[in-house]
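Replying to the earlier thread about multi-chain prediction with a worked example.

Input:
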Amino acid sequence: DAEITQSPRHKITETGRQVTLACHQTWNHNNMFWYRQDLGHGLRLIHYSYGVHDTNKGEVSDGYSVSRSNTEDLPLTLESAASSQTSVYFCASSDTGGGGTEAFFGQGTRLTVV
Amino acid sequence: GQQLNQSPQSMFIQEGEDVSMNCTSSSIFNTWLWYKQEPGEGPVLLIALYKAGELTSNGRLTAQFGITRKDSFLNISASIPSDVGIYFCAGQPYFGNEKLTFGTGTRLTIIP
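Result:
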């Protein structure tokens, strides 16, 4: 069955370190997204991609970067981790359909920056 | 960034009761989606709505795409313990813009 997987599920890192969170989907979807989820804020979009070599900033992109070298993967990099980036991160993918878009989510990565 | 207004923020109900929640926006959406999230998991898609006025069911869940295209409603009938979780609405502003805007969620708790 097609799926979307994130790794690691849990990560503890130190302030200032570079961290990369992986997202891999086997749906062959064009669109991939990274969200962070914090209490009181719901899901906020960090970066997104509509296809290979395409990347775009979301509403909370500062301190994060992504690259899309193939259809299946959209890794999220924290250039220099900060305590404010402690959060739960979700990756999602969707296809571009004629009637709309349905995004499917991974299980999340809980990141703690100490 | 824009967020959808979702209400209520939380609900405490007894098993067997019906549940209603809604989502409103100041702007028009072309697609409305409803997700459920359980602890430690990612959101799971429940229902997708594509036309104004559309009413769609998925088992005990029924969702409606508001006629003004600025709101959506989710009803759960005869709640059971496994309905516990956080329910999110999400909207797609227009076709071609694949980004979703999410509501802040409704946390459903079932009292034994």
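The radius of gyration of chain A is 13 Å.

Feel free to reuse this layout for your own posts.
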